[in-house]
Amino acid sequence: VQRKDRLYCMVPFIWTPKLLPSYHAIRNTWGKRCDTLKFMIDPIIGDEHVGFKDLRSNSTADLPEDVVVIYDIQRPWNACPMSEEGNCRNIWEKVWRSWVWVDSHGGRDLAEWFVKVDADTYLFPENFKRYVRAKQLSPDEHHYFGHRLDHRIDNAAPII
């Protein structure tokens, strides 16, 4: 029996004109090598320049098939003006609700392995698959791949 190591790549994303080049770059490079690729976006799209559109009340946006709107986010990304300090974005909520969406929309039937990848990260899906095969890791067990990140904010708790 040949082992399946299908990879589901989930990318939390902010759908604005400024960030669309990143979306296209991911789709055209490493994203093509994921077995499933989904960009999870807030229900509010746009920016200060083109205006904001709330998809919860107006869902007429023509979005690509690999973009998923997480409608039930309580603290969307635009709730905090960029000029203010503090953490009024809630990326944890977005990631948590995105994983709930993946699970409730048949994600377990699409892949054995699931990764959350930031839009500013370059992933090598084939290296991931090679690694889990070489280590004989089971997708039925919990694994964490990553590193401690403590170089972004001075005097702040590290991000893991």
Describe the fold and architecture:
This protein has 160 residues and is of the alpha/beta class. 23% of the residues lie in helices and 18% in strands. It is built from four helices and six strands; from the N terminus they run βαββββααβα. It has helices spanning 20-28, 91-104, 107-110, 125-134; strands at 7-13, 36-41, 44-47, 51-54, 67-69, 113-116. Strands 5-2-1-6 form a four-stranded parallel beta sheet, covered by helices on one side. Helix 1 links the parallel strand 1 and strand 2. The radius of gyration is 17 Å and the shape is elongated. The model has no long low-confidence stretch (mean pLDDT 85).
Q: What structural category do the secondary elements indicate?
A: alpha/beta
Question: How much is the average pLDDT?
Answer: 85
Percent in strands: 15-25%
User: What is the radius of gyration computed over CA atoms, rounded to a whole number of angstroms?
Assistant: 17 Å
Report helical residue fraction: 10-25%
Shape descriptor reads elongated
- Major beta-sheet overview: 4 strands, parallel
Helical segment count: 4
Order of helices and strands: EHEEEEHHEH
N-to-C CA distance = 36 Å
- Count of extended strands: 6
Query: For this entry, what is the oligomeric state of its chains?
Result: single chain
- The neighbouring-strand order within the major sheet is 5-2-1-6
* Low-pLDDT regions: none
